[in-house]
Amino acid sequence: MTEIIDELSVLTGDLAPQKREDGYWFEAKTLNRSLLAKFMNEHAIRLSTMTAIERADGETDILYHFTNENVAINIRTKTAGQKIPSLGEFLPSANWIEREIHDLYAVYFEGHPDLSPLERPAELPEGFFRKEIADRLIKAKEAK
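^ that's the sequence the OP posted. Answer follows.
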């Protein structure tokens, strides 16, 4: 596992990932998703899920959660202008997760084949989990 972590450190640019009880955590400043997907596939490391966290600067952190041999490998990166390249082209399991994050946080996954709403009701705007949008929806409901 040490060799995999060392190689991921180079891939993510994070030469000091955190090792915690819940796995390894990498902060990726830039991330070549094609190389990441190829590396993960070659080492039988699968994408478990992805999560999103709204940032105070208006961007969104995207966290990729992978598993291998009961070890979690987590890679955090952030959007630029609420955009980030899609991982789905290389790991099809990411497609639905990216659609969900697009619905909830209005993140545009560049290169994704279909960002149509997955679970968002038609009456709710794209990104309704973002604080500003959620606050606006609550105020509108309270005004009725």
